[in-house]
């Protein structure tokens, strides 16, 4: 059996693997278990009782985290005319119309989020093979296809995250940095979990919140007790 590095072993020693913690306790342990020299990202993983193969059980959306993600987000907006000016004034890093579509098709990828006005989607659709696999294709369901580009840019810059259930029924999302205060991490986690609860498909049967865990980039996974949120889910 390979030897566990001393720092990793010390981090794991603060976590009781057999226990499910409250959200606040788990976020406090994430900070306590930190050992990397950089500011690690904190991720939440929620396993849902859904079958994503069925369209009516696909859980997808977006939410503005109360305390942001701690990450600088580079926003690209496809817009023209007045909406191009609006996007620039809101703080978009890159804005353009057909010229920007051409630039991306030629390999430009220095951005983290893409927003487009509805009248640009005909041209942006041609970039599906480039943006789609990276999860960057604008989508009206998560608010990234909109004429309200100013607000969309401000939300993206302010900590809006997108989430989507994976084939295994798990939602992974960034909720902050280890340098965040414990309370800020807990509030971000609760905001995302509650958003998932509100989106429970009517066709989902049995336990909806199967398991929840939080971890930093290098740290151990810490279980969160779903019972804190069960009052908002129906056991069908």
Automatic annotation (TrEMBL):
Signal peptide: none
SUPFAM superfamilies: Ribosomal protein L1
Pfam families attached to this UniProt entry: Ribosomal_L1
Gene3D superfamilies assigned to the protein according to its UniProt record, in alphabetical order: 3.30.190.20, 3.40.50.790
GO cellular component: ribosome
Record has Membrane as a keyword: no
InterPro entries membership: Ribosom_uL1_bac-type, Ribosomal_uL1, Ribosomal_uL1-like, Ribosomal_uL1/biogenesis, Ribosomal_uL1_3-a/b-sand, Ribosomal_uL1_CS
Alphabetically ordered keywords of this record: Repressor, Ribonucleoprotein, Ribosomal protein, RNA-binding, rRNA-binding, Translation regulation, tRNA-binding
Quaternary structure and partners: Part of the 50S ribosomal subunit.
Record function comment: Protein L1 is also a translational repressor protein, it controls the translation of the L11 operon by binding to its mRNA. Binds directly to 23S rRNA. The L1 stalk is quite mobile in the ribosome, and is involved in E site tRNA release.
PANTHER family named in the record: 54S RIBOSOMAL PROTEIN L1, MITOCHONDRIAL (PTHR36427), LARGE RIBOSOMAL SUBUNIT PROTEIN UL1M (PTHR36427:SF3)
Listed HAMAP family: Ribosomal_uL1_B
Family: Belongs to the universal ribosomal protein uL1 family.
Protein name: Large ribosomal subunit protein uL1
Lineage of origin: Bacteria, Pseudomonadati, Myxococcota, Myxococcia, Myxococcales
